[in-house]
Each structure stands twice: as C-alpha cells, then as structure tokens.
Amino acid sequence: MIFFNAPIVAINSANANAADELLQPPTKQILLAEINGERSGLAELPTPAPEKNFQPLTDSRFEELVGVDLQKAVEQPKQRLSIEFSKEVMRHPKVRYFIDYFTKRGRPYFEQTLARAGRYLPMIANALSDAGLPQELAYLALVESSFLPNAKSSKGAVGLWQFIPTTARIYGLRIDPWVDERRDPEKATRAAAAYLKELHDYYGRWYVAAAAYNAGPGTIDHALQTSRAKDFWGIKTKINQETRNYVPKFVAIATIAAEPEKYGLSQISFDAPLTYEEIELSAPLSFTTLAELTAADAATLRELNPSLLRQWTPPGARDYRVKVPVGKAALYAAKILEKNTVHYAKCSIKCAKAKR
Q1: What pLDDT, in 10s, does the model give residues 266-290?
Q2: How many alpha carbons fall within 13 Å on the CB side of residue 166?
Q3: Cα dihedral angle (320, 323, 328, 330), rounded to 10 degrees?
Q4: d(Cα 323, Cα 329) in Å, to the nearest integer?
Q5: How far is 158 from 137, CA to CA, in rounded Å?
Q6: Which of 34, 144, 181, 303 is catalytic?
Q7: 261: annotated active-site residue
Q8: Omega of the bond prior to 26 within 30 degrees of 0, cis?
C-alpha cells in the first residue's frame, strides 16, 4: 500500500515546499474547479466506453454497495482495516469517469498531489486505524484539500480536512488570533476521524456520512427532510455537484492510489513523511529565537508548525508544545540549560557584590 512504501528522501525546507510550488495559480485553480464540477461537469467530458454485456449500477445500488464495502472494512480486525471495493462499485460510470480523468487530463495535478501526500499518509493512516476506521479514508483529505494544510475555501473551511470554525471547536481544535489547529495535520486528522464516526452513528450509512462531511449535516438534513427521500440519491437535486461527486471521486482516488503503477503512474516520487520531535516552551518564543536554539531553519520550523499564525508562539501559554526536526530537541534542552546556568552564575555574582 502507498501508506508505507513511499520512498524516503532528505527532509529540508526546499523539498518540503517543492510540491506546493508545482501547482501555481491559475493552473491549480482551474484543475480543482474542473474536478469539483465547477467548470466542466460530467456531461462535458466523455465517460469511458462501457464493457460489453455490462449493466451499470443504479445510483441507489451504488450507494448501497459502497456502504457495504466500507462497513466490511470497519468490521475487520484493527490491524487489517482496509477497504476492498467490489467490482460493481468500480464499474460505476462516475467512478470510471474520475479514474479516467485523474489518469489522463488531470494526471499532472494528481501525480503532484499524490507525491505531496507522502508527507502525511503514514500519520493519517495511524490516526484512522486508532479510531477504528479504514486507512483509505485518508484520501478524503486529498478530495478536501489536495493535502495542503493551509488550504482555505471560500466558505472559511481550513486545513487538510477543511473544518469550518464551529465544527472545529466542537471537536477540540483551538482557533484564535495566535493559533489555528485546523492547520495542524495530526490534530485535525484525529478531529476528522471523530467527526466521521459521529456522522456515521447519526445517519447509519457511510455514504450519507461522507456526503455530510463534505456538505455539512445541516445541508443533508434539510435535503432529506424537504424531499422525504429514502436514500442519498433521492436528494441529489437539492445538493451541489461537488457533494454529488464526492464519494465516486473518493472511490476513484483510493483505487488509483492503492496501485498507481497499474494506472500508468509509475514515476511518482513521494515526499518523505514528516518526522519531528516535540519540546515544551516555558515562555513564548519567536521563530527566529527557536531557530537559533535548535540550529534549525526557520522555514522548516514554520512547516512543522502550520497552526501557529504569527512569528511567535502564543503569549501566556505555559508548557506550549512545538515541533522541531528530529535530533534538535536535545540541542534545545542543552542550550536552555546553558543559558539558565549562565544566568544563575551572573545572578550569584551580583548577589555576592550586593552583600559586600
């Protein structure tokens, strides 16, 4: 699986930011608009030709089978939580459309985004597994944000998992002028896992839960109540195209990502997983000072701590934890001890002179 086979490359600020620079506006914006159906909908691009003697699923049957596949995965032992989509699901026209799109016209975008995913997939897979969810749900973050922790939507949703402020706070994420934990990949992932589980408990169907994650439960509830529909596709005229395509797009992405070589994507150079250590600060520090104390590049520190919105850690926060490159925590501790020792020695000399 891609979660654990991404090649390891040297971590530095240039490498960490390289994938972000590959998709520059307006190209990136156009591609995302196309994928979300905002610029050219499904009707404008041809769906691959159907196989002979193949009867495509109805949308309702597709919803049912995706739910069955997801539920089977959730019921597996924790160490084997994995989704295996049925052949019928894989042959649905919308799934086949998105597989065709991401491996042809949208291939540059998809390859670059999948390369960037290497930074986060091991962490996300572990967090989802801890929550009892299949690892493949990690690719919902690709659908949501293209694995950009600083992504922000026009509606104010932020981060890998695109939380709006009210939902983020419900799931324990801090948002204030100094910190926005929606941008913290690990904290946001654990919040997203809890949110997905709660949505499934509420709706009882994985397909609807996933759609509600994208559109918001208020939108889905209103559509269900006003239409009196019995399934997701009964409300398709009351929700936007992005949400209608959300699950088929996810199925296509997870399928390609599981076996990229099978779909002709054999040249992807995955970014190395982000690795770090955490230190506790007894007082606020600037990134400049933190860089000096850890002998780390300030840009790398910014990348490891995207939830920090300013050049300083939050004021008044004791024992605030920040991430530093591996091997730098011990250096920080040694320098702090050295500074404290020098300060104590100076104080002792001053005190001795004062007594005389």
Answers
A1: 888 999 999 999 999 988 999 999 9
A2: 4
A3: 40
A4: 9
A5: 18
A6: 144
A7: no
A8: yes
